Amino acid sequence: xxxxxxxKLYTIKEIRxxxxxxxxxxxxxxxxxxxxxxxxxxxxxxxxxxxxxxxDFFRTYIKEIIEIDGITxxxxxxxxxxxxxxxxxxxxxxxxxxxxxxxxxxxxLDGELYYGGNAEKRSITKRTEFLQALKEKTxxxxxxxxxxxxxxxxxxSSLNF
Length: 161
Known about the structure:
The chain is α/β, with parallel strands linked by helices and 161 residues long.
């Protein structure tokens, strides 16, 4: 049995090793790589994950958040989320995005189809469930309002499906 979590998850063997670690309760030491402002915004988003008690779930499937100058993406084989400063500008929305990506990473490790129409709908459902939970658990009235605003936007956009 390997003594450490794989650095990359490309092969079936690496994924099996990762699943064994996860099944035994393994959690990554989350790192955030980017500018000070980026790290601060991601840090605020992480606090919202903790409010909803999702931080351990998140650290199970994501080990790194990296600031890039490009489009946000889950790098499932690297156990990382690449994102830009604009995606984390609103920490409430950023927290819901992080949860969405973590669920997609979980599906990848579980051998499920983690991309495409149905997978996207499932991950958006997890995102809106997170927003609802944050709205219920936070004591910050501004955060509650922002959760509701985002939930309304997601509801409105889901009518287009």
